[in-house]
């Protein structure tokens, strides 16, 4: 939906993303890249383009040697980014460091060799947007993500709310977990969202 200068992505009556609240998506990118500060030529996977806030934050933070893959399941999202939202997209999809793939992020994870995997494909660790996404957040799914990470690599998962059971599953999958609370808005206001940063030793 578009209302004046604001854009929203909805699923039924659930607001998945809005240009009015992008602070935590931006933080997902920035805080992940801060954990890659010493990595040369990092390979980064972003699951879910959304409105591109996370991608743009990653591109601002990483150097020219980075390789960033965006796995987006819904081609209309990319069409919208290149069409009505082109001004906001600001050319990030055409950055030479970026490869955009219309695919299930699980297929991208399976290719392996990632320094970071950033997941923002649901409103948290459950398959809200697509039941098939549930597998990403099970112990088996988390073990697959761990195996896809280069040692020292980071799995970052965005959520609209805390989930203690999911945090325990991350630990059970052999990942060192750091749970961070961030505000939804760029001005530091709005509801609190959660990002889990889970590192493979």
Description:
This protein has helices at residues 23-34, 53-61, 75-82, 86-89, 105-111, 139-148, 164-172; strands at 2-3, 6-11, 14-18, 43-47, 67-72, 98-102, 114-119, 149-159, 176-183, 192-199. The chain has 201 residues and is α/β, with parallel strands linked by helices. The strands form 2 sheets. Strands 6-5-4-7-8-10-9 form a 7-stranded mixed β-sheet, sandwiched between helices. The longest helix has 12 residues, at 23-34. The radius of gyration is 16 Å and the shape is globular. The model has no long low-confidence stretch (mean pLDDT 90).
Strand order of the largest sheet: 6-5-4-7-8-10-9
Count helical runs.
Answer: 7
Instruction: Compute the number of structural domains.
Output: 1
End-to-end Cα distance, whole Å, is 42 Å
Structural shape: globular
Q: How many strands appear in the DSSP assignment?
A: 10
CATH superfamily: Vaccinia Virus protein VP39
- Elements, N to C (H/E): EEEHEHEHHEHEHEHEE
Strand content: 25-35%
CATH topology: Rossmann fold
The first-level CATH class is given as Alpha Beta
Largest sheet features:
7 strands, mixed
CATH-scheme architecture: 3-Layer(aba) Sandwich
Helix fraction bin: 25-40%
Q: What structural class is derived from the secondary structure elements?
A: alpha/beta
How confident overall, as mean pLDDT? 90
């Amino acid at each position: 939906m578009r209302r004046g200068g604001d854009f929203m992505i909805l699923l039924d009556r659930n607001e998945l993303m809005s240009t009015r609240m992008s602070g935590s998506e931006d933080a997902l990118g920035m805080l992940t890249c801060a954990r890659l500060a010493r990595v040369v030529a990092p390979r980064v996977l972003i699951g879910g383009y959304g409105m591109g806030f996370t991608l743009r934050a990653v591109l601002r933070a990483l150097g020219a040697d980075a390789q960033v893959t965006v796995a987006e399941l819904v081609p209309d999202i990319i069409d919208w980014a290149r069409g009505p939202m082109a001004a906001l997209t600001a050319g990030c999809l055409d950055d030479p460091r970026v490869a955009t793939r219309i695919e299930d992020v699980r297929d991208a994870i399976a290719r392996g060799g990632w320094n970071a995997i950033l997941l923002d494909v649901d409103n948290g660790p459950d398959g809200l947007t697509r039941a098939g996404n549930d597998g990403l957040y099970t112990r088996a799914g988390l073990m697959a993500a761990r195996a896809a990470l280069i040692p020292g690599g980071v799995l970052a998962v965005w959520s609209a709310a805390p989930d203690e059971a999911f945090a325990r599953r991350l630990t059970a999958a052999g990942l060192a977990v750091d749970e961070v609370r961030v505000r939804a808005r760029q001005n530091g206001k709005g509801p609190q969202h959660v990002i889990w940063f889970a590192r493979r030793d």
